[in-house]
Amino acid sequence: MAGGLVVRNMTSTGRGGCGARGASGDTITCRTRAEDEGRYWYFTSWRQPIAECERITDALVFIKGYLGAPG
């Protein structure tokens, strides 16, 4: 799958999905989710659903927690 938004936690001390030393990150995509009647959802690069695309705050909270970003 091409495209997506690369998000990084530059305060992380480990290696993350983007491979950059000292930064954890992932590529977030938006696509339909069959389990939710074809509505658009955000997903991690591991195809884990994050939140429905209209629930941006929920997606942000999930991504920050997922990458270990400070509150």
Record keyword descriptors for this entry.
71 residues, 1 helix, 17% helix, alpha+beta, four-stranded antiparallel sheet
Characterise this structure:
- The chain is α+β, with helices and mostly antiparallel strands and 71 residues long.
- It has one domain (5-67).
- The chain has one helix and four strands, in the order E-E-E-E-H.
- The chain has one helix spanning 56-67; strands spanning 5-9, 24-33, 39-43, 49-52.
- A four-stranded antiparallel sheet has the order 1-2-3-4, covered by helices on one side.
- Strand 2 and strand 3 (39-43) form a beta hairpin.
Number of helices: 1
Shape: globular
Strand order of the largest sheet: 1-2-3-4
Major sheet description: 4 strands, antiparallel
Could you say how many structural domains there are in total?
1
Secondary-structure map:
Elements: E1 5-9, E2 24-33, E3 39-43, E4 49-52, H1 56-67
Antiparallel strand pairs: 1-2, 2-3, 3-4
